[in-house]
Write a structure and sequence with these properties.
There is one protein chain. The protein has three domains: 5-117, Jelly Rolls (Sandwich), CATH 2.60.120.380; 121-326, Alpha-Beta Barrel (TIM Barrel); 330-497, no CATH class. The protein has helices spanning 141-150, 165-169, 209-221, 258-272, 308-316, 393-400, 406-420, 433-436; strands at 5-14, 22-29, 35-42, 51-57, 62-67, 72-76, 92-102, 108-117, 122-127, 155-158, 178-187, 190-195, 225-228, 248-253, 278-282, 298-303, 320-323, 330-335, 338-339, 343-344, 354-362, 367-373, 376-383, 442-444, 450-458, 463-472, 477-484, 487-489. The chain contains eight helices and 28 strands. The chain is globular and about 85 Å long. It is of the alpha+beta class. Bound molecules: zinc ion (ZN).
């Protein structure tokens, strides 16, 4: 495996005679680099105070100067420390700039550490649905960013209703977050997120399927990725049909509730008919709330680079896992080199038609993991509660709010849902439903909260996907804690991967 990071330790002796001059400590950037981290130190003490300032230049220009204010900083393709410019990292000779402001008689040694990070594949966590003061949300953009950062997220989409002003207001690079441009087309007949281009949606006024065709089609032509939001929401469902142009379905909106249960069942039916629809989720957070929070659910997306386009490419490939919270149950599903969102090509499947599957689960605490295909549930595992189960964020929060357990938190969400969902069309799936599949659950012990499971799949299935649920004891109900997009089995018409 190619090393992701290259570290350089550089030294520069500064003589008294160099005081009040600018010096360069050069280093080379060879090949693709997505981020440069720099730290420096020198002896500051003594009667004769030493002050060495710092900055950075690329092969083309000065990219930033922090004087004596910071001991470390970074520049990345789309993120940077304040005072530095984010941007593509050019190959060639770079230099750390040192300002020899105050140097003692005996001189001073400066140690500079440079770390070059190569682009590499990784999962990044974010929230693809939220609102700010640019529509009916309570958060300013800065407050929404701070809340997402506090939740440990790495990207966010401000999907204000029928406007793009939030995207233009949030253009400046951040240190931690990637801002995915977004807008929620909000009509009286349904809502849809358009992600990826700041101004992809030109008109939201849709009252017929024909108009939705035109408006969403144009948004896609302008580079937008279209997700039909909360399609089975009792108060604002999608009523314009599913023949309109779209790329994904928001199967998980906010806390796990009946409307999500309905969307999940619809999605499963589509997949079972051979359609390939990407499942997304987003918190739809508008303001501070007991249950609705940034990153609930979290969308974990596989990206090959720390960029918005990388995240969008991962979403377009269906490399998306949804989690109840940023630090809750996470799962991965793979068959050899093919993972979530991929299609296993026919040529990679042996004559016996076996599809060996590897399942990785982390952070599960008493969850029941189900492996689904177009035939329904294929296997079930009960993940044992680790003996030293550390309380997760939602448990801690719940405890602070009055000593609630996970189960009572779930019960509260379900009660909240029942009060909101006046139509009550479909209740949450009873915990006992899995038993009806005729599949007996197996116990799986975790090691440090992690467990690897194996299953011998079959090429006569259309897909495999994972779903983890936590049961509410005494309520005979469960909530989804993690949901993966499928790994698809190649069909005759699929060529290559
Ligand atoms: Zn909406």
């Amino acid at each position: 495996m190619e090393t992701k990071k290259q570290r350089l330790a550089l030294r520069r002796w500064i003589g008294k005679e160099e005081e009040r001059s600018y010096l360069e400590v050069p280093f080379a950037v060879d090949g693709p680099v997505e981020r440069i981290d720099i730290a420096y130190r020198y002896e500051r003490g003594g009667a004769e105070k030493t002050v060495v300032d710092i900055g950075l230049r690329s092969p083309e220009r000065i990219v930033g100067w922090s004087g004596g204010a910071r001991e470390a900083f970074f520049v990345g393709t789309e993120k940077a420390t304040p005072g530095y410019l984010a941007g593509p990292i050019a190959e060639g000779e770079w230099a750390v700039l040192l300002g020899a402001y105050k140097i003692p008689e005996g001189g001073a040694e400066v140690i500079v550490e440079v770390e070059l990070a190569r682009p590499h594949g990784r999962w990044m966590k974010g929230d693809l649905h939220m609102h700010s003061v640019h529509s009916d949300g309570g958060y300013t953009i800065e407050q929404a960013k701070d809340s997402c950062k506090a939740r440990g997220l790495e990207f966010m989409a401000l999907t204000d209703h029928n406007t793009s002003s939030q995207n233009f207001a949030a253009l400046a690079p951040d240190e931690q977050l990637l801002l995915v441009p977004g807008v929620e087309m909000t009509s009286y007949y349904g809502h849809a997120n358009v992600l990826g281009r700041p101004d992809a949606l030109r008109d939201f006024r849709v009252t017929t399927s024909g108009q939705a065709d035109g408006v969403l089609g144009e948004a896609r032509e302008r580079g937008g990725f279209v997700s039909l939001n909360h399609p089975f929401c009792p108060s604002c469902p999608w009523e314009l049909g599913f023949d309109v142009p779209y790329d994904a379905i928001e199967v998980w909106n906010g806390p796990w509730r009946a409307l999500n249960e309905r969307a999940l069942a619809w999605w499963q039916a589509q997949l079972s008919q051979g359609r390939r629809v990407i499942a997304l989720g987003g918190s739809d957070t508008h303001r501070e709330d007991r249950f609705v929070k940034h990153g609930r659910p979290t969308a974990s997306v596989w990206t090959e680079s720390d960029t918005v386009q990388g995240v969008l490419a991962g979403i377009r490939q269906g490399r998306v896992v949804l989690q109840f919270n940023p630090d809750e149950t996470c799962m991965a599903l793979a068959s050899g080199e093919y993972g979530i969102g991929d299609t296993i090509p026919r040529h990679a499947i042996g004559e016996q038609g076996a599809v060996p599957l590897t399942i990785d689960v982390c952070g599960a605490r008493g969850d029941r993991v189900a492996l689904w295909s177009d035939r329904g549930i294929e296997a079930l595992w009960d993940i044992a509660l680790p003996a030293s189960a550390e309380a997760g964020e939602w448990e801690t929060e719940a405890a602070q709010a009055g000593g609630w357990s996970v189960q009572r938190e779930i019960a509260a969400i379900l009660a909240f849902d029942a009060s909101e969902d006046k139509e009550g069309c479909v209740p949450a799936i009873p915990a006992g439903a899995a038993a009806e599949s005729g599949v007996a659950p197996r116990m799986a012990e975790t090691e440090n909260g992690r467990v690897r499971l194996h299953f011998q799949g079959s090429a006569d299935r259309l897909f495999y996907r994972l779903e983890a649920r936590r049961v509410v004891e005494g309520l005979d109900q469960s909530v989804v804690t993690c949901l993966t997009n499928p790994v698809y089995i190649g069909r005759a018409e699929d060529t290559g991967a």
